[in-house]
Amino acid sequence: MVASRAIGSLRRFTASRTLRCPGYTCRNFSASSALLTRTHINYGVKGDVAVVRINSPNSKVNTLSRELQSEFIEVMNEIWANDQIRSAVLISSKPGCFIAGADINMLASCKSAEEVTQLSQEGQRMFEKLEKSTKPIVAAISGSCLGGGLELAISCQYRIATKDRKTVLGTPEVLLGILPGAGGTQRLPKMVGVPAAFDMMLTGRNIRADRAKKMGLVDQLVEPLGPGLKPSEERTIEYLEEVAVTFAKELSDKKISLKRDKGLVEKLTSYAMSIPFVRQQIYKKVEEKVRKQTKGLYPAPLKIIDAVKTGIEQGNDAGYVSESQKFGELAMTKESKALMGLYHGQVLCKKNKFGTPQKDVKHLAILGAGLMGAGIAQVSVDKGIKTILKDATLAGLDRGQQQVFKGLNDKVKKKALTSFERDSIFSNLTGQLDYQGFEKADMVIEAVFEDLNVKHRVLKEVEAVVPDHCVFASNTSALPIRQIASVSKRPEKVIGMHYFSPVDKMQLLEIITTEKTSKDTTASVVAVGLKQGKVIIVVKDGPGFYTTRCLAPMMSEVLRILQEGVDPKKVDSLTTSFGFPVGAATLVDEVGVDVAKHVAEDLGKAFGERFESGSVELLKQMVARGFLGRKSGKGFYIYQEGVKNKSLNSDMDGILASLKVPPKSDVCSDEDLQYRLVTRFVNEAIMCLQEGILATPTEGDIGAVFGLGFPPCLGGPFRYVDLYGAQKIVDRLRKYEAAYGKPFTPCQLLIDHANSPNKKFYQ
Amino acid sequence: MTSILTYTLKNLPSTSKWALRFSLRPLSCSSQLRAAPAAQTKSKKTLAKPNIRNIVVVEGVRIPFLQSGTSYKELMPHDLARAALLGLLHRTNVPKDVVDYIILGTVIQEVKTSNVAREAALGAGFSDKTPAHTVTMACISANQAMTTGVGLIASGQCDVVVAGGVELMSDIPIRHSRKMRKMLLDLNKAKTLGQRLSLISKFRLNFLSPELPAVAEFSTSETMGHSADRLAAAFAVSRLDQDEYALRSHSLAKKAQDEGLLSDVVPFKVPGKDTVTKDNGIRPSSLEQMAKLKPAFIKPYGTVTAANSSFLTDGASAMLIMAEEKALAMGYKPKAYLRPTYATPKVLERAGLTMTDIDAFEFHEAFSGQILANFKAMDSDWFAQNYMGRKTKVGSPPLEKFNNWGGSLSLGHPFGATGCRLVMAAANRLRKEGGQYGLVAACAAGGQGHAMIVEAYPK
């Protein structure tokens, strides 16, 4: 479950931050002329500098909504008309957020591309006026400055940013399947150069303030302040404002120039970019790269390149027209609807529906220092949770502690942590072989070997030493939680926490409750998961829960396709070109052939005929030969340290040949192969909702995309059915059912949706 | 001077260690100063307690504090410390064999003399049977040396202790890079020519790039001046306020020097050079001149400049501390009682004193911005409630009793030696001005602080 790199960056979106927003008044103003009844924006004047404050009511973040925009235009017009004012500062009153972007709901409410294009043009006009302002405007940025917020900032004459971790600048539009539609594609390349602008707009990555300064995206940095006579956040914003006002004055007095000194590299790049041939080469290179990475499944990146190109080659006017039109087109695409759906889903899955747990988890204990156990430890200690990592052997414990250290140290190398922070974080971890200190544990997560007897043994051992309130969570990918809980003295405290490997990279956490699990236990593990930075789905107990249960039939189909003589490389390329981040055959190797075999056998027993297709015998023989996948160096492929292009494991030929089944020619086209895999996945997901394993379609989509790498451009199985039509999927399933029988029988809920086209999972 | 300071601060970032969090601790040093309930009469009780040994300062001296890179630049730290010890011996005539223990503070250690107290003591002619150790606690190293000495006397282990400190910023240990050191160490172990050659073959030119003492505080990666600028900003201390305070410090120091009040200074004949008789960093300037300087750390809009910061300093100090009865038995007239505590928020409360009881304040001033921020914090109810666990503010010390003979900004700040200077300034001021209690406070890198009450010895 290596999954979704493409989507990984979605995590950065969650701009919502839990910061309190202290009452911030404008008492310093000499002339508070314009305190009309505006709700999003107010301004006051300090000397001859107007200070414009952005503060959307009842929200943790500022977004460029219609109301905010119209108030902003009003305010700016007043400022431009006022002779007493010679310059302006734009600042947010919310610590942690300058402007987090445009209002997504505003886009979603548009019915046509033209309507969206019009929105874009309004934005373009507004920002063009800012850019052409004769009174210098300084953007004072503290907190997230993303999307439309960044476009606003780069239209100003000068930018000053707080140098803290919360202050990030970026253009994440591409991750929502759209483009920066308020002049961003035109201004950004001029400001930071074409290559850097492409990098920002095509990856959507967040850029921290110090890096932004180096790139020329901001002009000055302000250090965050410690506590003084006021809380530090409040004082830092005040200080930022003071500094910005000084600069605004100096700009209007022409004491400082707007021209930035360019470094040698920058000068060379901009010289190179003045040669048309070089530019063409760059466009070509970038386009090639994008096509390769998106496999043509995501329209936004290519349109971004196009809009930038038009602006540079044909001038600003053409560029603006191109940008706004493409913005309109993109907003109407299924891809963009899917990605925005994921964004909303992700926001939902970052909330604790179960309320505040009675007891905060301060002491966590993890059993088993394997890949999973150590991974869980890593994401816990760096959030300040005191964590015990217990293993049965010193060698195992050493390996696990080293894994945690390496994970933290890699962040030091990337400058995301200082070495001191690494050391103090690592001090939250205690490695041990016994149960010392478990009497203080608020929660125990076991990540021991996937064997019911072992799990039972540790559960009993743990219950003998932990306090009454302690939660016992089992990290398992398939063992039913109620079976694990069967030996517990307190089944209401037993719950499943299914993490995905590698834990520090994969965002999903699947929480599994039994009918005996108490609500407080659930609230407690969700709270811990959220603290660990996870996106959480909560599902009911059942064989394979949700994620494993969806993956298993698809994997089973992979085996059948392989047995039909399609080679693993072909299977991989078919799945990746459908939008899966990892090919299906490679996925088996990554998960581990032995694990796949376990799961296939267990679920096969539980679901019978419906889960049959490929032969488990194939997996059995692979295990017998030691082809366990990546971890043993051989699976369908051969894995060697440092070798990038993996080659097929030729020893598999014999096994595959001995288990060969004849392909059925009418369901064996490339497209059929793809749909055989995907429809089984989707059908099973919908069945999970039908059976009540899943509580909501949103959780189903988030689980599939973030845990299993279901193509993000499709938005998850439920969104996929909504967007592409249930009938089409039922038709496909019926076709394959005719060839293969029960595994493809569409479930009742899907049939219901096909029968009444108005029925949607998302209204 | 500006250029010297900024240059050195940039290049010898070792200094920066002392930067951080001036704010909190020094605050808490003085946080104890609960707003006086009612003005007490001037006739104060003594802090002596029954059954606890009184500890007195008999005398304290220092060699002149010089800007680094001047007359002391060819010397080594133990040379300065030895001069201070000899000065003390000369001033007090104390027999060397009476001294039970010698403790010196230092910050940047010269690796050849890592126990610089011992080297200086032996050189000054103390017996090799008199133990000596070196302590380090950033800017409060000398305070720690004194406190340790007080502890030894209070517990009855010693009767007479010499405490002091030394710092030589003219020369600092600059090391080979770790790669180079590793190669040299491995070479040492290599037995055959082949092994040696193979090691040497791994040599790369970048091995030669030197390693300076840390630019920034290890735990926070922040330099000291930077931190002071942020602190000043956090408390909204203006550039003008800082410059005015610095000017005050220099003017008072100049006046004290001219009037001969800095009696703790002993002359030092520097080998090969003239005798140094006075501090050379005192430079009263004008506010206009100071306003011209560019910010030294946060550019271009910061407020901390070379003129309102203390400069890199060479110097050493030493102090003779005794149990009261011992001092009296030896015929000394002690200068003051020492009542040290760590800068817990209780120094005054413990002593049962209030702000108005204090006649002389001697605070370490590394930066104008730091001292002024401290004043503001002590004067803030909000800060007292949120960061000191108090209901009301402490109140800031009255400026007319504060660092009246100059401070670290003007006299200089040899990190390891400043503590003794503060105590002697307080003791001498009490004698001169006729006060009874002095409050000494200093802050140090890593958010630590130290405070001490000095009580005048009855005349």
From TrEMBL, chain A:
Family: In the central section; belongs to the 3-hydroxyacyl-CoA dehydrogenase family. In the N-terminal section; belongs to the enoyl-CoA hydratase/isomerase family.
Site residues, Important for hydroxyacyl-coenzyme A dehydrogenase activity: 498
Localization (cell): Mitochondrion inner membrane
Domain 3-hydroxyacyl-CoA dehydrogenase NAD binding: 364-541
GO CC annotation terms, alphabetical: mitochondrial fatty acid beta-oxidation multienzyme complex; mitochondrial inner membrane
Catalytic residue list: 510
The entry's keywords: Acetylation, Fatty acid metabolism, Lipid metabolism, Lyase, Membrane, Methylation, Mitochondrion, Mitochondrion inner membrane, Multifunctional enzyme, NAD, Oxidoreductase, Phosphoprotein, Transferase, Transit peptide
Record text on subunit structure and interactions: Heterotetramer of 2 alpha/HADHA and 2 beta/HADHB subunits; forms the mitochondrial trifunctional enzyme. Also purified as higher order heterooligomers including a 4 alpha/HADHA and 4 beta/HADHB heterooligomer which physiological significance remains unclear. The mitochondrial trifunctional enzyme interacts with MTLN.
Species the sequence originates in: Lynx canadensis (Canada lynx)
Database matches in InterPro entries: 3-OHacyl-CoA_DH_CS, 3-OHacyl-CoA_DH_NAD-bd, 3HC_DH_C, 6-PGluconate_DH-like_C_sf, ClpP/crotonase-like_dom_sf, Enoyl-CoA_hyd/isom_CS, Enoyl-CoA_hydra/iso, Fa_ox_alpha_mit
Pfam families registered for this protein in UniProt: 3HCDH, 3HCDH_N, ECH_1
Entry GO MF terms: enoyl-CoA hydratase activity; long-chain (3S)-3-hydroxyacyl-CoA dehydrogenase (NAD+) activity; NAD+ binding; transferase activity
Substrates-to-products reaction catalysed: 1'-[1,2-di-(9Z,12Z-octadecadienoyl)-sn-glycero-3-phospho]-3'-[1-(9Z,12Z-octadecadienoyl)-sn-glycero-3-phospho]-glycerol + (9Z)-octadecenoyl-CoA = 1'-[1,2-di-(9Z,12Z-octadecadienoyl)-sn-glycero-3-phospho]-3'-[1-(9Z,12Z-octadecadienoyl)-2-(9Z-octadecenoyl)-sn-glycero-3-phospho]-glycerol + CoA; (3S)-hydroxyhexadecanoyl-CoA = (2E)-hexadecenoyl-CoA + H2O; (3S)-3-hydroxydodecanoyl-CoA = (2E)-dodecenoyl-CoA + H2O; a (3S)-3-hydroxyacyl-CoA = a (2E)-enoyl-CoA + H2O
BP term (GO), one: fatty acid beta-oxidation
Gene transcribed to yield this protein: HADHA
Pathway annotation from the record: Lipid metabolism; fatty acid beta-oxidation
Residues the record marks as site: Important for long-chain enoyl-CoA hydratase activity: 151, 173
Enzyme Commission identifier(s): 1.1.1.211, 4.2.1.17
Listed Gene3D superfamilies: 1.10.1040.50, 2-enoyl-CoA Hydratase, Chain A, domain 1, NAD(P)-binding Rossmann-like Domain
Domain (3-hydroxyacyl-CoA dehydrogenase C-terminal): residue spans on this chain: 544-639
Chief localization: mitochondrion
Name of the protein this chain belongs to: Trifunctional enzyme subunit alpha, mitochondrial
TrEMBL record, chain B:
Keywords recorded for this protein, A-Z: Acetylation, Acyltransferase, Endoplasmic reticulum, Fatty acid metabolism, Lipid metabolism, Membrane, Mitochondrion, Mitochondrion inner membrane, Mitochondrion outer membrane, Transferase, Transit peptide
Occurrences of domain Thiolase N-terminal (ranges): 55-325
EC class (word): transferase
CDD domains: thiolase
Residue stretches making up the Thiolase C-terminal domain: 337-455
Main location: endoplasmic reticulum
Gene Ontology cellular component list: endoplasmic reticulum; mitochondrial fatty acid beta-oxidation multienzyme complex; mitochondrial inner membrane; mitochondrial outer membrane
GO biological process: fatty acid beta-oxidation
Function: Mitochondrial trifunctional enzyme catalyzes the last three of the four reactions of the mitochondrial beta-oxidation pathway. The mitochondrial beta-oxidation pathway is the major energy-producing process in tissues and is performed through four consecutive reactions breaking down fatty acids into acetyl-CoA. Among the enzymes involved in this pathway, the trifunctional enzyme exhibits specificity for long-chain fatty acids.
Quaternary state and interactors: Heterotetramer of 2 alpha/HADHA and 2 beta/HADHB subunits; forms the mitochondrial trifunctional enzyme. Also purified as higher order heterooligomers including a 4 alpha/HADHA and 4 beta/HADHB heterooligomer which physiological significance remains unclear. The mitochondrial trifunctional enzyme interacts with MTLN. Interacts with RSAD2/viperin.
Family of the protein in this entry: Belongs to the thiolase-like superfamily. Thiolase family.
Identification of the protein by name: Trifunctional enzyme subunit beta, mitochondrial
Encoding gene per record: HADHB
